[in-house]
């Protein structure tokens, strides 16, 4: 059976409290609100979210395994310094994975799904023009996931998902120049998919993701987040 955009779509389970705590602090770090060397206490996270200190601490331990936090003896959790190279490395990996998924999608995409992508992109550009960044984020996610699901490659999709925590959830609102760059890049990706050009689609998606990494690294450096 030919894969479709709806293939393998599953209901997302609710976040555990520890995951909620991790997501909250991760966002503070990648958005530049917490900087390298600053300390964060489980009790502070618990108060912010209205949860107990135990899941808050579990969330901070998760961020330690992800490389966002360091445990300093008798002091607690501090924000680990990230470099521009760290960010670009993550996005280079994401570009390879996203490019492969897009190349595979080019081999099976239909005219109907190309039209669906065009409709998503038109809505995204309209939302960006109105500075409705919540809607932009939702539509951007939908654009990428429509392509990635079409590839039929679950394991590669799982791998690319592991790189996503390094981008702030409010990427479009936070990173200057990204709405315009994204609109241009998405159009190029759609055209390569329309023509069934697998290698062209791979390169268009890879360039798009690498551009995101460059803009994010510049944004984090300007905010003082990078070490």
UniProtKB/TrEMBL annotation:
PROSITE patterns in UniProt: HTH_GNTR (PS50949)
Residue ranges that the Swiss-Prot or TrEMBL entry lists as coiled coil: none
Residues that span the membrane, as ranges: none
Name of protein: Transcriptional regulator MdcY family protein
One Pfam family this sequence matches: GntR
Residues covered by the HTH gntR-type domain: 15-82
Keywords associated with the record: DNA-binding, Transcription, Transcription regulation
SUPFAM superfamilies in the record: GntR ligand-binding domain-like (SSF48008), Winged helix' DNA-binding domain (SSF46785)
Family matches, as InterPro entries: GntR_C (IPR011711), TF_FadR/GntR_C (IPR008920), Tscrpt_reg_HTH_GntR (IPR000524), WH-like_DNA-bd_sf (IPR036388), WH_DNA-bd_sf (IPR036390)
Taxonomic lineage from the root: Bacteria, Bacillati, Actinomycetota, Actinomycetes, Mycobacteriales
Organism expressing this protein natively: Mycolicibacterium smegmatis (strain ATCC 700084 / mc(2)155) (Mycobacterium smegmatis)
């Amino acid at each position: 059976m030919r894969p479709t955009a709806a293939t393998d779509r599953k209901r997302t389970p609710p976040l555990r409290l520890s995951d909620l705590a991790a997501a909250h602090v991760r966002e503070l770090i990648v958005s530049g609100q917490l900087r390298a060397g600053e300390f964060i206490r489980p009790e502070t996270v618990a108060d912010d979210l209205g949860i107990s200190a135990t899941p808050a601490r579990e969330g901070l331990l998760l961020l330690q395994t992800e490389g966002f936090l360091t445990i300093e003896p008798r002091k607690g959790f501090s924000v680990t310094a990230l470099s521009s190279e760290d960010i670009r490395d993550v996005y280079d990996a994401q570009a390879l994975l996203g490019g492969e998924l897009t190349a595979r999608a080019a081999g099976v995409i239909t005219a109907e799904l190309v039209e669906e992508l065009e409709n998503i992109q038109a809505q995204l550009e309209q939302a960006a023009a109105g500075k409705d960044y919540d809607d932009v984020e939702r539509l951007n996610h939908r654009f990428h996931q429509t392509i990635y699901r079409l590839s039929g490659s679950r394991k590669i999709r799982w791998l690319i998902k592991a790189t996503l925590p390094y981008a702030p959830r409010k990427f479009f609102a936070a990173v200057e120049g990204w709405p315009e760059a994204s609109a241009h890049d998405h159009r190029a990706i759609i055209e390569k998919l329309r023509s069934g050009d697998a290698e062209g689609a791979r390169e268009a998606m890879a360039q798009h993701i690498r551009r995101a990494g460059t803009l994010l690294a510049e944004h984090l450096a300007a905010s003082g987040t990078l070490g």
